[in-house]
Amino acid sequence: MEGGSSGKHFILVHGLCHGAWCWYKLVPMLRAVGHRVTALDLAASGAHPARMDEVASFEDYSRPLLDAVAGAGEDERLVLVGHSMGGLSVALATERFPRKVAAAVFLTAVMPCTGTRLGFTLEEILGRIKPDFFMDSKRVVLNTDQGPRAAVVLGPELLAAKLYERSSAEELALATMLMRVGRQFVDDPIMQDKTLLTEVNYGSVKKVFVVVKADSCMSEEMQRWMVDLSPGTKFEEIAGADHMAMCSRPKELCNVLLRIAGKYG
């Protein structure tokens, strides 16, 4: 899902079990003021044709984003926006192509820091949530070429209570119908690599964390903890939004992204 002509180029990256479709409100808002927008499906997500059991690694899962950034023109400076678990894919793309990224935006997202493993913050978040957090979500085991791998499908009760509780009934219904199997890739070797994220690449790119103050999925305390782990990271705030701020507060999110692009893009 791509379009626009002049202005900045935003690349929007969805979270666990979601797809490019979750940005449908934000995309036309950014395009209406002259910006180019690419909302993409990560591998085996949204309308992507692969199945999750066919995705061998976190790098393969992130390949659509890596290819999009690699294919950007040499004169382009991208604004990457990662939501929720999409923050990890944004971090990987930023490490690989720092000169192409004007700003990396983490929208109530898993934001890693240099000097530790890519998966460190994700593991900390998963370790701090209560055992019943996932409610009616379905845990599944995928038979992959690498062996059995844990996966999940987010359940409708979880979506209603912790992700879309301030969004419309139509948005919740859409999400319930479009959920796909998701993996967190905590056992992937790239997640355990302490040398992956470097100061010269990932650490050199401007980062902005968008704190969603009413998020029931990721607490404000947890969001600010990740900001504190990465000195120099700026932050913006959105009040009154649920975890899916692009659905519940799209105008406010659009204004935040325009400010960021104007400052760093």
UniProtKB/TrEMBL annotation:
| SUPFAM superfamilies, per the entry | alpha/beta-Hydrolases (SSF53474)
List the molecular function annotations (GO) for this entry: methyl indole-3-acetate esterase activity; methyl jasmonate esterase activity; methyl salicylate esterase activity
The protein's matches in Pfam families, at most eight in alphabetical order, are given as: Abhydrolase_6 (PF12697)
Query: What biological processes does GO assign it?
Result: jasmonic acid metabolic process; salicylic acid metabolic process
Q: Where is the AB hydrolase-1 domain?
A: 11-253
Q: Which InterPro entries match?
A: AB_hydrolase_1, AB_hydrolase_fold, MES/HNL
PANTHER family reported for this sequence: ESTERASE PIR7A-RELATED, METHYLESTERASE FAMILY MEMBER
Protein name per its UniProtKB record: AB hydrolase-1 domain-containing protein
Organism expressing this protein natively = Lolium multiflorum
